[in-house]
Design a protein that fits this description.
heterodimer, A: about 110 residues, mainly beta, six-stranded mixed sheet, five-stranded antiparallel sheet, 11 strands, B: about 120 residues
Chain lengths: ~110, ~120
């Protein structure tokens, strides 16, 4: 599949700060997914979005499915050290395949 | 729920040998599973779609005779890297989609393959 445009590529943040990252695509997706991957591990699902305009929260995480179906953002509020990792967005199309963003590497300064 | 396991987590083999990696959905049935390869500091690259009871669908540029996929049951898919060479060394990750469910894919923990 195509690679989505994910930004920023990396960020250094202070503990307690809010974090925001987003993904855009030239194609429409049916589903937007956000994953977190720790070194040497597989991606872990954070939030799944199934409907255009949908805003979903999971603890300190909030994500939205863009109304055009071509974008999504993920917010992390009040970051803590364990938020360190690589965050990937992914979009699913009709054939169930996922297209991934290049990832956002988050490093938290204590 | 939606737990996917992979075995082995790490494997080191000699050049020319074959290696089998198993992917299991532990608490759900998965008609469709996916195999990915990930290079250091890169995103996931889809290799193939594994369909229970039928042949896998490979992405362009992936050699089907090199990477054999078998999906014999609704909870198990296997990837066999045949005649492995050092350039096959990589992190291989599988995912599974709940049968009859949404597009959401649940990922396994990955297998680190090192070919000497």
């Amino acid at each position: 599949g195509q690679q989505l445009n994910q930004s920023p590529q990396s960020m250094f943040i202070q503990e307690g700060e809010d974090v925001s990252m987003n993904c855009t695509s030239s194609s429409i997706f049916n589903t937007w997914l956000w994953y977190k991957q720790d070194p040497g591990e597989g991606p872990v699902l954070l939030i799944a979005l199934y409907k255009a305009g949908e805003l979903t929260s999971n603890g300190r995480l909030t994500a939205q499915f863009g109304i055009t179906r071509k974008d999504s953002f993920l917010n992390i509020s009040a970051s803590i050290p364990s938020d360190v990792g690589i965050y990937f967005c992914a979009g699913a199309s009709n054939d169930y395949k996922l297209s991934f963003g290049a990832g956002t590497t988050v490093t938290v300064r204590a | 729920g939606a737990v996917v396991s992979q075995h082995p987590s790490r494997v080191i083999c000699k050049s020319g040998t074959s290696v089998k990696i198993e992917c299991r959905s532990l608490d759900f049935q998965a008609t469709t599973m996916f195999w990915y390869r990930q290079f250091p500091k890169k995103s996931l690259m889809l290799m193939a779609t594994s369909n229970e009871g039928s042949k896998a669908t490979y992405e362009q540029g992936v050699e089907k005779d090199k990477f054999l996929i078998n999906h014999a049951s609704l909870t198990l898919s296997t990837l066999t890297v045949t005649s492995a060479h050092p350039e096959d060394s990589s992190f291989y990750i599988c995912s599974a989609r709940v049968s009859g469910g949404t597009d959401t894919q649940y990922f396994g923990p990955g297998t680190r393959l090192t070919v000497l």
